[in-house]
Amino acid sequence: MLKLPRSTFYYKQKLAARKARDADLLRDIEIILMDFPYYGYRPTTRALRRMGHVVSRKTVQRIMQENNLQCRKRKSFAVQTTDSNHAYPIYPNLLEHFRVEQLDRVWVADITYIRIDHGFVYLAVILDLCSRRAIGYALSTRIDKRLALSALQMALEQRKPPVGCIHHSDRGSVYASHEYIDLLRANGLQISMSRKGNPYDNAVAESFMKTLKYNNVYLSDYRTWHDVVDNVLGFIADVYNAKRLHSSIGYVPPNEFEANLIAQGGEVSANQLPPPLVA
Question: Do residues 118 and 41 both lie within one domain?
Fold first, then answer.
């Protein structure tokens, strides 16, 4: 009988237990990354903890590195979506030093593009700044005021915001147009616009567009209008709003954040409950 030190025996037991635990973690990490391929180790750690794992960031980082699961950046193709060279009135930025703690107090709007084989599809989105939830969105093959108006109409119909809710956007002609401004005023919204040449004034909307690109658009082979319609709207409703963890709201999805806020007695009227998912 071999006379091995007791420490060797316990070391082998520890090593076997660690390998088994790593295998369980790896399985669940791969499940998480199927929905969110561009998660880094920090949000992946949060997602694992929500699944019941007691795990540190360092452990998750090690397992992801060992299995080549780190997210990779992809260079984007830049397309201008803001036409600020127009004769419409420009409105001041109302969000400087503004603290948002309730739903439907500030909405932020933006437009981005999705490249297809023969041109582009444009996406207009409106987010609630408190919950980061996408509350209005629309697609079009043209970047014009009708696209922006469609997203705004969806947000208004689903949320019915209180008078004084701030609508913030860039200085683009679609947001400054008479029709868009008239619809905002008719529904009691205050108008706010970013300062000239300052993308940080609308950073939350820009962050949403980046998330959409890296977690959906860049991973897909969108060739036609129908490809985009069939997938992007579902991603926004079923993944971004319902599943994706957001660090700015405590690493929960927007739908869950809103439900928690309402349950805690936040000042939210019945018509401001989370709207049904739109595919």
Answer: no
Structure tokens at 189: 């919204």
Classify residue 18: in a domain, yes or no. yes
pLDDT digit string (tens) for 47-106? 888 888 888 888 888 888 888 876 655 545 455 555 566 678 999 999 877 778 899 999
Say if residue 151 is in the same domain as residue 31. no
Q: Which residues contact 53 (CB under 8 A, 6 or more apart)?
A: 24, 25, 28
Radius of gyration of the chain (CA): 23
Sign of CA dihedral 232, 249, 150, 142: negative
Model pLDDT for residues 175-210, shown as the tens digit of each residue? 999 999 999 999 999 999 987 766 667 889 999 999
Cα separation, 17 vs 149, whole angstroms: 57
- Both tokens assigned to 46: 């949060």
196 neighbors 122 (Cβ within 8 angstroms): no
Q: What are phi and psi of 168, to 5 degrees?
A: -115, 140
Distance CA 78, CA 59 (A): 37
Number of compact structural domains in the chain:
2
CATH number at residue 126: 3.30.420.10
CA distances to 52, 116, 174, 272 from 133, in Å: 25, 26, 22, 12
Report the predicted TM-score, pTM, of the whole model to 2 decimal places: 0.74
For residue 85, being part of any structural domain is answered with no
Residue 214 structural domain:
106-272
- Residue 252, strand partner residues: 246
Task: For residue 201, give the 3-state DSSP assignment.
Answer: helix
Shared-domain flag, residues 133 and 31: no
Let me know: does 146 contact 175? Beta carbons within 8 Å. Answer: no
